[in-house]
Amino acid sequence: MSQQTGQTLLALLTGAAIGAGIGILYAPDKGLNTRKKIHKKAKKTQKELERQLHMAKTTLSGKATDAREKFETKLEDTLSSMSHKADDVLLALEDKLEELRAKNAKLQKETKTAK
Questions:
Q1: Are 17 and 27 in contact (CB under 8 A)?
Q2: Which of 6, 21, 36, 47 has the fewest CB atoms within 10 Å, i.e. is most exposed?
Q3: Could you list the pLDDT tens digit for every one of the 115 residues in the chain?
Q4: Rounded Cα gap, residues 27 and 100, in angstroms
Q5: CA 24, CA 20: separation in Å to the nearest integer?
Q6: What is the DSSP string of 61-81?
Q7: So where are the chain's domains?
């Protein structure tokens, strides 16, 4: 649930609660009955807000879990790719080192032969 949706929902519920409260206050009823109605409406609104909050927490928790799993998968893929590239670089360096050793050995042989 986005922040704007949550704020809109809260404003709507607040407006409904205020409207209901004003309606009850202007109703021709005894004070005790009016207070009971206000209390009952407040409890109902509180339960609705708690339900909405629980839904929002569940949704956000699910999204966070999904995002973490996607990140971990992407990280593993990246590390695996980097590992393969590092192996390719090491193989290329080893090949170059062998080539240089061979050239060095050839040069040393030619130097000994020339002396």
A1: no
A2: 47
A3: 567 777 887 888 888 888 877 776 776 767 788 778 878 988 998 898 899 889 989 999 999 999 999 999 999 999 888 888 888 899 999 999 999 999 998 888 888 787 6
A4: 100
A5: 6
A6: HHHHHHHHHHHHHHHHHHHHH
A7: 3-114
